[in-house]
Amino acid sequence: MKFPHDFLFGAASAAYQVEGAWQEDGKGISNWDVFSKIQGKTFEGTNGDIAVDHYHRYKEDIKLMAEMGLESYRFSIAWTRIIPDGDGLVNNKGLDFYNNVINECLKYGIVPFVTLYHWDMPQNLEEAGGWTNKRTIDAFVKYAEVCFKAFGDRVKNWITFNETVVFCSLGYLEGAHPPGIVNDPKKYFQATHNVFTAHAKAVEVYTKLVHFGEIGITHVFSPCFSIDEQLENQQAAYHANQYWLSWYYDPVLKGKYPEYVVKQLAEKGWTPDWTEAELECIRLAAPKNDFIGLNYYQPQRVMKNNSEEVFDAKARENVTGAPGNASFDGVYRSVSMDDKKYTKWGWEIAPDAFLDGLRMLKADYGNVKMYITENGLGDQDPIIEDEILDMPRIKYIEAHLKAVKNAIQEGVNLKGYYAWSVIDLLSWLNGYKKQYGFIYVDHKNNLNRKKKLSFQWYKNVIETRGQDL
Ligand code: BG6
């Protein structure tokens, strides 16, 4: 089977991880500009001040994407370039930059797929409470509307938020992302509700503009599986899926929160401060949400937590994303399993679980349109005689694309695949040590770009529409 012609082969990036130019052309200061400079927060103190200088080199980078045959480029807009202080005046130079990026993509026939929020929030808003403050909802909707109006004639694919579970859990439970708060479930659930409300309001605004495009949200897709058939572990997996999947997917796709979690939050005193009007807005926006974006890296293997232990962020030296912790409510723990394969950072490599998870989503949410908006291998790429021979990445993406193909054959409504990432970029917590790109960036030599082995491989996949996979 070849991939259908309306299926997009793409690759992705995010503003803070590639752009640099952190103080140029009127850009405001973001929470990440500040947070990354607090000692000990990022790997070897790395930050996005320069990143891989995409701000100045976007033409060179997009030319390479075109050479690779990329059909679509998923990138994010830095809110601080558009409205530097969060909810004040619009910065025209910021609009110019993204107009240039979009036009450059279109020049080569590359579909721009735009994320509005990939974690870099104006610092003013963060200091006023960030996602726990409802002012941020209105500010986001205003920013979204500015973007829709400025770029909507050419951008037809919009993602409101990237991975709410990550910036909320790392921000309010683990303290590893801004605002760096540890173990505060009340704030965590409030932040998630405010994000869902902001998403719903942005969907309403977009729909009213009648731009004939589509709008959705991107979630982490990390389905939880019990380690065995034991009932107590299966119950633990159910619990984990309710908290990590249903809590995120239900409000967007079903327009309401899962009853199981709502009930438990009430018992624990963690119910968000929500109004009837907000809940109604979430309910009404759900059928207008056009698609769901899935970022799949790994599943979670879980078992019942048999000790008193709950997740303790302070006890962890650094956050790697690898399993091995009790959940924040102490119900289950995530574990590594001897018979599974893992990356150098301890992330499980499981294309089979990807397919199982997609089946699970289809069973729960029906025929909703989906894109894989991120998937890829973080690795320290082997360099031999100046060539970047990233065979493990090729194998990883090949196996996951096969799973996508199988899912399509089984009737899952998948319309695109975006590898993470198009180019080597700054990992939020792992600096430049962990690479994901098809294009290598030489940090010792003027940030020069070089094609990796995977570049040619992906080009061939796109040209042949995945026929040989
Ligand atoms: C996703 C994010 O969670 O994972 C990306 O959307 C991120 O921005 C990617 O870079 C990989 O994470 P890490 O920690 O390996 O850099």
Walk me through this protein's architecture.
The protein is an alpha/beta fold and 469 residues long. The strands form 4 sheets. The protein has an 8-stranded parallel barrel with strand order 1-2-3-4-5-7-10-13, surrounded by 5 helices. Strands 6-8-9 form a 3-stranded mixed sheet, covered by helices on one side. Strands 11-12 form a two-stranded antiparallel sheet. It has helices at residues 15-18, 31-35, 54-68, 79-82, 92-107, 123-127, 135-151, 164-172, 185-209, 231-253, 259-268, 276-285, 351-365, 391-409, 453-463; strands spanning 8-12, 72-76, 111-117, 157-162, 214-220, 224-226, 291-295, 300-304, 332-334, 369-374, 383-384, 387-388, 414-420, 439-442, 448-451. It starts with 7 loop residues before the first strand and ends in a 6-residue tail after the last helix. It has a single domain, classed as Glycosidases (TIM Barrel), CATH 3.20.20. α3 (54-68) packs parallel to α5. The longest helix is centred in the middle third of the chain and has 25 residues, at 185-209. 6-O-phosphono-beta-D-glucopyranose (BG6) is lined by residues 14, 17, 162-163, 166, 295, 321, 374, 378, 420, 427-430, 434.
